[in-house]
Every structure is written in C-alpha cells, then in structure tokens.
Amino acid sequence: MGLVGWGAIGRVVGTALAEGGVPGAELVCVVDNRALGDAPAPQLSFEDALDHCDLIVEAAGQSVVREWGERVLQSGTDLLIASTGALTEENLAAALLAAGPGRVYFTGGAVGGLDLLQAVRSLGPLTDVTLTTTKLPSTLEQPWMGADLLHRMRTATGPVEVMRGTARDVPVKFPKSTNVAASVALAVGDLDAVRVRVVADPAAQHTRHVIEASGGHGVYRFEVQHLPDPDNPATSQVVPYAVLRSLGALAGRRGQIL
C-alpha cells in the first residue's frame, strides 16, 4: 500500500505499518508534496505509487480525493478515503462509486454507529437524522467567516453555534473539521437528510460528536468525545487508528467487526 499525506494522520498510520502493526499490509511508499526526511518508506510521485501499490490510503485532505480519486480507481488500485467530506460533491461521489476496476472504501473516522445506520436504512428511510459537532473555537475558524462571528467565537465564555445546515453544506465550509458529517450522510444514504450543527465551545477539552437518528424501525443515538490530536487539533486523536482498523479489515485480519 501507499500512503498519501505525512501529517497528523499519516505519521501515525505510516509508522504503525512500517512496524508491522497491520499483518498483511506493507507500506511501500509515501506521497507528499513536501520533501520528507523521516518517512519509513520511499517517497514517490503519485504516478509511480500507482505502479507499485494494491491500495492507496488518502490521509491528506479533500483536494486529493477530488484530484486523484477517480484516476486511482481507473488504474486498478483500490482507494481508502479518510477525507469523506469530498463526497458532498455529488458528481464526484457518483464518479468514484462508478469507477473501476479499483474499489473505493471509506473509513469511519472519529465516530461510531455508521455500520448500524447503514444496516437499518435497508428497513426504510431514516426520517430524522441530526449531527452536533462541538470543538474548540480556534479549530473552527475559517477564511469565509465575518468579523462579528469571529469576535463571538474568540470572546465566547460558553457554547456558540457557528453554523447550521445539512451534510451537503457543512463539510464544504469546514474541510478539515467536519468530515464526520459526510460520513454520517454516506451511512444514511442522503446528504440532505442529515441536519448538522457546528458549535464552538472554549471549554471543549474533547471534540464531541452526537448523532441522533430515528425512523419507523427504531431510534438511535451515538455520542463520542475524543481528545484532539496534539499536532492538528482540527482532527481527533483517534482518526489514524480508525484508518488502521479499516486497513486491518481490508488485509483480512481475523476477529474484525465488519
């Protein structure tokens, strides 16, 4: 496999693979637009990586999925996507799901319960799906924000709602912070059905995600709280380990919950 991105996620994933942490998965190269001196595998161009790998792991952001996703799959190489927020572009999502002969996979990232939501949607549509994400204000600041909103976030003494929308709208506005919204939508099967609230809270020592869903067949609620990654507080510390779990499943590790 090849790893795209040597940041907060890629370093943990790449180091674990190099140390044999996922039996059946061998790291043969790292792809990054910077010259790396500490990667545990050769640094190759994207084109060369496709010639050497059975699987590409994206850990570098939504732009990589947009630029390279379809080409990876067309080359016959499988693709594991961490930056699911790119899939809010319906044309891109359709192209990736239709492309081949490579296969596309998505990691659950910082939340659980997606496997159950994906299963129960076969019983009928979920009529009410909400996601509330709460993070430190500094991790949510974006170039598009106006002075008033930035001031409220920076001076807040309690929770401040930063944005309310659907899983189609929110990941575009927070490309490094709200991939979870797109992941929930992938599980539910409808970007517009998932209503999302993004909350800035200066007291949020943990990143918090609350998923609530209901339909004629049941009621579901999942809540997780994670420590932010110390090197990249916009992402949760658990995300690279979710990627490693996905790799273990793809490599045929026994005892996996699928």
From TrEMBL:
Protein name: Aspartate dehydrogenase
Family to which this protein belongs: Belongs to the L-aspartate dehydrogenase family.
Domain Aspartate dehydrogenase: residue ranges: 157-243
Ranges of residues in domain Aspartate/homoserine dehydrogenase NAD-binding: 5-99
InterPro entries recorded: Asp/hSer_DH_NAD-bd, Asp_DH, L-Asp_DH, NAD(P)-bd_dom_sf
Entry superkingdom: Bacteria
Record lineage: Bacteria, Bacillati, Actinomycetota, Actinomycetes, Kitasatosporales
Pfam families cross-referenced by the UniProt entry: Asp_DH_C, NAD_binding_3
